[in-house]
Amino acid sequence: MIFIRLVHTAIELSDWSSKIDDPDTGAHAWFAGVTRRKTTTASGAVRITKTLHYQAHESMAETQLRQLAEQAKQRHSLAAVVIVHRLGEVPIGQASVLVGCSSAHRSDAFAALPWMMDRLKADVPIWKRETYMDESTEWIHP
Amino acid sequence: MTSTAPLRILLFAGVRDAAGCDVANVSVDHPVTAAKVIETVATQIPAAAPLIGVSRLAVDGQYVAADHVIERTDVELALIPPVSGG
């Protein structure tokens, strides 16, 4: 099973944990990406973020997330995958993304999480805009 | 044989802010490649030209290569600047 959702409200692990249940799995693994307050720039300066805002090309993002979940399922022998990404305003310290998967053995579930996150951060059309404490804003285009 | 036709391209994030709108309407000569479409959008929105230069084009929800030829039947074009989800 694959569950892909773009949401505009807080992401709670308890809302999603049962989605990867499968009696033939022995490993459930989760990763939550959380909005961070401090960013150290290349020059060594520290910028303090007040809040973050996420924008997406929603239909394409859902398609891309489903494709990467299907690839991860095949590549890592997963039973189920959940990917939830929050859009709009995300206060500091809250989850912006939740990725979960289940597999028969832990090595597959452990390996699948960074694989999926790396692809999400490379290809899925979602962008974050930082609002710093001085009220300046910046779209992040790495 | 070439012919000029309008294209409508969805804009996002830093490019959208620089353009002040969420769609770019450009006129191009068909047949046209994805690279030429991106170049044309950069000319129209010079404030975001460096960012547009590192952006990718998506056709109907899928990334396409620079030499991909845009078809008149393509429903949706989107300019995708470097992403930062997660």
UniProtKB/TrEMBL annotation, chain A:
Metabolic or biological pathway: Cofactor biosynthesis; molybdopterin biosynthesis
Gene3D superfamilies: Molybdopterin biosynthesis MoaE subunit
EC number: 2.8.1.12
Keywords annotated in UniProt: Molybdenum cofactor biosynthesis, Transferase
Tagged with keyword Transit peptide: no
Keyword Transferase recorded: yes
GO molecular function: molybdopterin synthase activity
Recorded catalytic activity of this chain's protein: 2 [molybdopterin-synthase sulfur-carrier protein]-C-terminal-Gly-aminoethanethioate + cyclic pyranopterin phosphate + H2O = molybdopterin + 2 [molybdopterin-synthase sulfur-carrier protein]-C-terminal Gly-Gly + 2 H(+)
Pfam families given in the database record: MoaE
InterPro entries found in the cross-reference section: MoaE_sf, Mopterin_biosynth_MoaE
SUPFAM superfamilies, per the entry: Molybdopterin synthase subunit MoaE (SSF54690)
Assembly with partners or alone: Heterotetramer of 2 MoaD subunits and 2 MoaE subunits. Also stable as homodimer. The enzyme changes between these two forms during catalysis.
PANTHER family hit by this protein: MOLYBDOPTERIN SYNTHASE RELATED
Record family assignment: Belongs to the MoaE family.
Protein name: Molybdopterin synthase catalytic subunit
Annotated source species: Stieleria magnilauensis
TrEMBL record, chain B:
Any Pfam family the entry gives: ThiS
Classification via CDD domains: Ubl_MoaD
Keyword Nucleotide-binding applies: yes
InterPro entries xref list: Beta-grasp_dom_sf (IPR012675), MOCS2A (IPR044672), Mopterin_synth/thiamin_S_b (IPR016155), ThiS/MoaD-like (IPR003749)
Nucleotide-binding listed as a keyword: yes
Keywords: Nucleotide-binding
Domain of life: Bacteria
PANTHER family for this protein: MOLYBDOPTERIN SYNTHASE SULFUR CARRIER SUBUNIT
Family: Belongs to the MoaD family.
Protein name as it appears in the record: Molybdopterin synthase sulfur carrier subunit
Organism of this sequence: Stieleria magnilauensis
High-level lineage: Bacteria, Pseudomonadati, Planctomycetota, Planctomycetia, Pirellulales
